[in-house]
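User: Okay, second chain of the day. Same drill as before: sequence in, structure tokens out.
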Amino acid sequence: MNRFVPAERALRTAAPDQLLQAIRVVLARQYAASSVELFMADYGMTVLQPVPVPPYAAEPLPIHGTPAGRAFGAQEPFAEPADGDVERLHLPVTVRGDRLGVLTVTLPADHARQSLAELAEIAQILAHELVVAGRHTDVYLQARRLHRLTLAAEMQWQLLPGHSCAQPEYEIGAQLEPAYAIFGDSFDWSSTADRLLLYVTNGMGEGTEASLLTNLAVNALRNARRAGIPLADQAALADQAVYAHYQGAAYLSVLMLEFDLATGRVQAVDAGSPRMLRLRRGGAVEPVSFEAQLPLGMFEETDYVAQEFQVHPGDRLVVVSDGVHEAASPGGERYGDRALARAITATRLLPAAQVPHAVLRQLTGHRSKVAPDDDALVVCLDWNGRTSSGS
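Assistant: Same drill. Structure tokens below.
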């Protein structure tokens, strides 16, 4: 019997808050591990936070410039020599492309070389169990916090599907800033055997009021989507839900995209301010424009029309909220399409999951010390397409 089978059984039968303790026992017994630590990526995707939080665990680790951060960024196991004949293995903890953190296992060097593949698989099993356990305990959500979240940010992060997602046809990465004080911007995605739906919303207002507005709109879109309603009608029903509650006093913008996974045909409803740019393989960055339609909830019973365009294997789509596009430098210069195109070009070799954070770092440099007055949202989608043999 493979040694990882007892590890899988231990994870599946452990209490939700005891996953790390369960895997420590098994890895010590089956792999002679002397130390096992779990680190979760924080909301800002800058630090790997230990589980449980200090002072009862290891210290937080920067994602950039550390062995654990290297494993997290590359999404590949990384072996770090330790004292004597001991190695420290850093293993990505990732589920369906959503990068949760790193499992660090210290064990004899000869065991490490022989056990790397099995331990990497155990880290993936752990990722699945962390997602399930998150429905029943706050331990892992608490571990992600470098700082306390505002109430509005708490509401928004609970609404979001994750930081990234990967399937054979596509890869998605998304990030919001300021991570611990966001309030209105949001993103959502959902896939079936044939379709991917991606929504990017640009909220209105501040604090919990903005978060409440976004929660209403996103859940109205989900309700319509889960009823099997076409894209344009999803927008119309969400528009009615927002207008019924706010009577036009509050509204929000959304870009809705529905991808046909087999053909790359895309339906789009552009209801407001999110902007999309496309980077073609070997080409320049170009804006993708649609006929502008009214934001959700601005007027009663607005009709929406879906437009179409085509994506090709190798295309990269980057969608930003106006907190990115309209961000001002100390001298009042807008970030705009030109700077955004430079940032997209500069990050062309990064995987989709890393692009949003890299673009937002460049945005921070543009703003310098000017405090942001709006959420900044970046979503990146890499289109791989579907092979003739299927998904």
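The first strand starts at residue 35 and ends at 41.

User: Thanks, on to the next one.
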